[in-house]
Amino acid sequence: MLLVGVLGGLIAYQENVLRRGETTILKTRPVDPRDLFRGEYVILRYEIETNELIEEQTQNMQYGSSVFVRLAEDNTGVVTAVTEVSQTPPQAFTDELWLRGEVRSGRVRFPDLEQFYVPEGAGRPIEDFRDKLHVEISLHQGKARIVRLLDESLTEIDPKTYLE
Fold first, then answer.
1. Domain span at 77
2. Which of 43, 55, 106, 164 shows the greatest Cβ crowding within 10 Å of its Cβ?
């Protein structure tokens, strides 16, 4: 019974970010989509990971340090810039979009957004989108979850249509 309660709590926590979060869009750089042990997924990297401000502000931080980045969107809702980097969370998460990341090997990664599971056989075709792939994310108090994949015109990608 306790195990069911713990699992239910974990699911509720994840769903809370999706339900209560604000959505925005990040441009991605997909990597390797296959793992025989965990199923098929697309590993995602983001353009903002190579942002000059982030690299400048985090170069002397220890591996695993948390970092919060404030995002700026264009008029289509796509994140185009990082306007602030902080090691401490904002005092209040207002209408500004803040995303929590971790410093890893001299770069900032966003572990909540690194994997997107797809049906078996859809990984490679989605990887072919390369720099034309975007993800819509839901942000709530710095935590993020992927809502859906989008193409370069910001149209939803249904992974089932890309089965090999």
1. 2-162
2. 43
Domains of the chain: total: 1
The residue type at 143: K
CA dihedral 105, 57, 17, 132 (to 10 degrees): -70
Q: What is the pLDDT of residues 98-137, one digit of tens each?
A: 899 999 877 889 988 988 888 888 888 887 887 888 999 9
Its pTM surpasses 0.70: yes
96 CB contacts (<8 Å, ≥6 apart)? 70, 90
CA-wise closest residue to 54 among 77, 78, 27, 81: 81
Q: Sheet containing 79-86: give its strands across.
A: 79-86, 66-73, 97-104, 107-109
Question: Amino acid identity, residue 3?
Answer: L
CA distance linking residue 17 with residue 137, whole number of Å = 10
> What's the first-to-final CA gap in the chain, in angstroms?
41
Q: Which two tokens stand for residue 105?
A: 């090997």
Q: Which stretches in the chain have pLDDT values below 50?
A: none
Of 53, 50, 19, whose CA–CA distance to 139 is shortest? 19
